[in-house]
Design a protein that fits this description.
Layout: E1 20-24, E2 27-30, E3 35-38, H1 41-44, H2 53-65, H3 76-88, E4 93-97, H4 100-117, E5 125-129, H5 138-144, H6 147-150, E6 160-163, H7 168-174, E7 179-184, E8 187-188, E9 194-195, H8 198-211, E10 214-218, E11 242-245, E12 256-260, H9 281-294, H10 299-320, E13 325-331, E14 334-339, H11 343-352, E15 355-356, E16 358-360, E17 364-367, H12 375-396
Parallel strand pairs: 3-15, 5-6, 5-7, 7-10, 10-11
Antiparallel strand pairs: 1-2, 2-3, 4-12, 8-9, 11-12, 13-14, 14-17, 16-17
Helix pairs in contact: 2-9, 3-9, 10-12, 11-12
The chain binds pyridoxal-5'-phosphate.
Length: 419
Amino acid sequence: MTHPAPSHILPTYARAPLEFERGDGVWLTTTDGNRYLDLGGGIAVASLGYSHPHLTAALQDQGAKLWHTSNLYRIPGGERLADRLCEATFAEVVFFTNSGAEANEAAIKMARKYQSSCGHPEKFRIVTFEGAFHGRTLATIAAGGQQKYIDGFGPKVEGFDQVPFDDWAAFEAAVGPETGAVMVEPIQGEGGIRTVPTERLRALRAFCDAHGLLLIFDEIQTGVGRTGTLFAGEKAGVSPDIMSIAKGIGGGFPMGACLATREAAKGMAVGSHGTTFGGNPLAMAVGNAVMDVVMEPGFLEHVRSMGLAFKQRLAELQDRHPSVIAEIRGDGLMLGLRCAVPNGDLVAAARERHVLVIAAGDNVVRLLPPLVISEAEVAEAMRRLDAACTDIEAHRRPGPASAGADAGHNTSAVLKGAA
Ligand SMILES: *Cc1c(COP(=O)(O)O)cnc(C)c1O
């Protein structure tokens, strides 16, 4: 399964030694025929699972007609998807991108341009939160503020002020005469499934209104049904001025979008931003197909009830394995297990039991399964996670090969080869 010669892929990922050939629903099958239950969903991307017939048909239909025209011409599928996204949200305009980071770049540029067009070009700074993840472009690593992503890449892009996740006084202190916007994930994904409390989201909205700041939600991971509502901010009854989405909206096709009110977008005129590929007919066909399914009556109820079923069983799992699992977090089908062992150990042990989960910050293991997961599959997932926890306990019991406490985040020296 591993490459015999050094790979020509730039080694920026510590990849698990698995190669998948096909997928079906929540299941992935390797090239050598092993099936894995995927609770990672390709990092919250495979929102409708693999090989969803409606998505496959939409892709094949459009694939036989027209892939790309550029944004020099009108794209009916994009007009339609923008109408639907605006119909379903606070938004009045949409800019389509190829990725989450690009959706955030559009959001950042739009917020700066808004302040500039209001006669405040000096208000270009954006307050963000520790533990945030907004992407890997030069601006979005500065927005996310994580030193490990910034180091060595030259001067950090100017204009982002980071405050602790849960410190209102620090937040207020960070807002100054140059601040133009606040950017926040309603639930931090990479940061470890950390939920911003409802009252805090409301307080941010009120604060932004009182101080002429734009509120930007990064719903790239939380959006498109993941938390059981179409967007996570809805639960708090809070609308942003600008919202970035990606991951789930494409169901695996690379696409994103920046949604905004007309007011927030008023600085963006012809020529002020662009993309060659963003919003192309192929992407728009898939995005519309995802919306067809997510907007079907009952779909979001399904997400909520599967989320509840998971959370209940995860609480039981924690009760049975307190030496492995310290805390359950999250909402809908965006769940986190804060680990009492290195989170990489649980990721590896789960993989040995053929279930895929994803490490996150704060020593958390994330579950972001396809939203179409069934009750029986939730039960199967729990049996496998339970077995994985038991395996970890067996390996950690004092003995000749007792576990090192500081195994890496994504690999486990202890469990490697333990199959
Ligand atoms: C994944 C993610 C991004 C970056 O998206 P890319 O498509 O990888 O550029 C930004 N913000 C959040 C919250 C994400 O989860």
